[in-house]
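Dear colleagues,

As part of the handover before I leave the project, I'm documenting each prediction I ran so the next person doesn't have to rerun anything. This entry is a single chain, and its sequence is reproduced below.
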Amino acid sequence: MKYVYILSVTFILLISGCIDKIEKIDLNVIQEPETIKNDSSINVAIASVVSPKESYEYYNEMIQYISRSLRGNVKIIQRRSYQEINELIKNNEIDFAFVCGGAYIDGNSEFGMKILVVPEVNGNTTYHSYIIVHNNSNYTNLIDLRGKKFAFTDPLSNSGKLYPTYRLFLINETPDSFFGIDGQGRNNWFYTYSHDNSIIAVAEQLAEGAAVDSLVYEYMKETRPEIIAKTRIIETSPSFGIPPVVVSKDMDPFLEERLRNVFLNMDKDEEGKRILSLVKVNRFVYLEDNAYDSIREMRKQIK
């Protein structure tokens, strides 16, 4: 039957308690692939946190590529936060998802979420958290941001929340105690639910600092250099296991293996290589669970 892919992405930038900036992108693509199993669809979730809005169209191309390779309907489910996506996987409402290391370790511990594959970027399967500030500021490290307005990305984000919170933990501080309260009694820190929104918040001086995913920051160097030029990196975290593609522990083993093979072989044909180049990925590979142990250790110490 005819199936309509809908990618509806909502980006929300929380500037203060009373200002919201919302952008929407709708992409509608119609295809009629043969179904992989009894007319049922394969569901994939992508959080707004994962990638800059410019690359969502490219992720849509990737999903269509996977659909053609599997000869099945693949439906994109869009959610704002990692927690929402983890709930979808937990309840077996989706088959696979693009998440971050922090969301993965939570899902793995709570309900057995598994790694399917991971992207290799610039020959590496690691990434960093960047602490950034406005280029015209005189801040040189996180300590200089005491009492300043700070942007986190998502409660489950490693690079955008866990690492900077751990960094504060090491000096016996929490986000509340360190960043403090503004003149109206509100926290001086907030969530943007998107790494690119956090970068923009600093560039436009809506926040004096932010913690962001190095992959997104480096991606925006090429796609939005005018924004990056307004920012500056003051701290870089140790290396962490790169954000993975994950599946439910209850996923059908046959489908899981077919899906993994599609990802692992994307770089072996021209169309796959073209799509990978658009999202700045060399190829997909398998990564062992212990690559995320350093994230687990931070979470364990903070809780």
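The chain has two domains: 3-121+243-291, 126-240. Residues 3-121+243-291 form a domain with the D-Maltodextrin-Binding Protein; domain 2 fold (CATH 3.40.190.10).

All the best with the project,
I.
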